[in-house]
Each structure stands twice: as structure tokens, then as C-alpha cells.
Amino acid sequence: MAPLITVLGSLNIDLVSYVSHHPLPGETMTSNSFAVSPGGKGANQAVACAKLSRSRDTSASASTSTHETAHIRMLGAVGADSYGSLLTSNLSSHGVDVSGVTSSPSLKTGIAIIVVDEPTGQNRIILSPEANHSLQPSDFAVLPAPKADLLIMQLEIPLPTVLAALRAARDASVPVLLNPAPAQPLPDDAYAGLAHLIVNETEAAVLGGVSEADLESESGLESVSKKFLDLGVQNVIVTLGGRGVFYMAAAGVKKGLVPAEKAKVVDTTAAGDTFVGQYALDVV
């Protein structure tokens, strides 16, 4: 039976403007193009898991078919508006179970305003959480059935809710993959027993109490990763953009820097979420 991956996190609509350069303070500029698309770190990671979990058999001896290697379920909240409907419809179209996504007529769906610098593909994001912040710790004092084989979370929902779900997962022996983005300090006990911690350089610096400059060397990456391992994390992954990925497992037995393949960057939006999705499928 295929494993169940549950994603507890944000659902946002992305309002994306593509520009020739990021606007300067006080500058008004015209975008080259504009797009409205489903987003939110939680929803992005759920879709990534769902899409990447489907392998197609194209061998000559078999008729073309799709094999699902994992079931994906989304837990979150949207407003009872057109954006909320767009988000749940998009998740469903990719095979994600949305029965755990609540919809409230008194709330608005979360919005992310994204400006993409086309020459570099780099983005800047302003987030309005809205319905995402309606998720309460009491909602996840016990994780909803069925029991997941892996729980994925981020920090675009209230931190107390994330911490409550961490405790519930620990009590139920459910492994957790935490992607603490946007970065904010966490209490030490949040790391205890955490199966997988995936951070980028900014998040590693904020949570590890170091500067990003400290992470330019492999020894610096190893040092900050060891801090997380000492707090109880089993596997630490630091994504480094064009530099690749640094990883370190408990006791430091397995560690190393995996360089990234050279590629032309078009848009970095949701790149980290896609990485989380593939990593989750590899470890579940």
C-alpha cells in the first residue's frame, strides 16, 4: 500500500508581476506580464509531492499507465471565496486529498504578492496570511486520522499551531519534515525527535544564530548543522541555491556538499517547495 504524506500548511493565491528589475524605493514601474496562480508553501509542497509521486510506465511490454507511489493529503484553511475554490480545485486536480482543508465565509483566502526580476529569476514576496492564521493549536492537539507516514510542515501558519502538531506527531510516532519558512526562531524542544529539517541559507542563519557569511564555507555549514543535530534533529538539509545542497545526518556519520547542476534560472518561486516534495518522496 502506498504511504500517506500529510501536509499541514498554507494555501495562498500568488499574484505575480514579472519586471525588468526590482523596483527601487519610491519607484513606480510597469510589469512585463502578470499572472494569478495557486500557491502557499503548504499547497506547493503538496502538489509537488503529488505530481512527483506519479511515475509513468512507458515500457514496450506495458500499456502506458500511471503508478502512484504515495497518497497526499492537505490540511489547511481558505476563505469561502473564488480564490479558495481555485486552490482546492487545483489541489484536487493533482490528486491531493482536500477533505482536511476548511473553508470559512468569514475569512479571506491568503494572498502572496510576488515580484520576479526576469533577468535573474529572483523574487521578492509580501504575504498576507488571512485564513491561514485561523488554524489553532487545539485543532491539532491530536493529528487527524488516518495516521500519516510523514507529516510535512512550514511556518506560514501560526507557530503555536505548528508546535502543537509537532507534539501530536511525536506522541503518535509520526515522522516530521519541517521546512521552517518564513524563518523565525524556534524553541529548542521543537527540534527534539524531528526526522528531517530542510532550511535555506537565510533560515539556517536565523535558526542557528549565525550570519549567512558563516555559511559560505563547508565547515560553517557543518557547524550550524551540528547545532540542529545536537538538539535532536535526525537529518539536516541546507539548500544553497546555485551552490547545491549540504546534508548531515545524526552523529555526523553522513555529511557532504552536493553541487547543483548548472542551469539557466527562469523563476525561483516554489523551487524550495519542489525540492521538499521530492525529498519527502525519497524518505517516506
TrEMBL record:
It comes from the Eukaryota. InterPro entries: PfkB_dom, Ribo/fructo_kinase, Ribokinase, Ribokinase-like. Residues 4-277 form the Carbohydrate kinase PfkB domain. GO terms for biological process: D-ribose metabolic process. Keywords: ATP-binding, Carbohydrate metabolism, Kinase, Magnesium, Metal-binding, Nucleotide-binding, Potassium, Transferase. It holds the Pfam family PfkB. The keyword Metal-binding applies. GO terms for molecular function: ATP binding; metal ion binding; ribokinase activity. PANTHER family: RIBOKINASE, SUGAR KINASE. This is Carbohydrate kinase PfkB domain-containing protein. It comes from Xylaria hypoxylon.
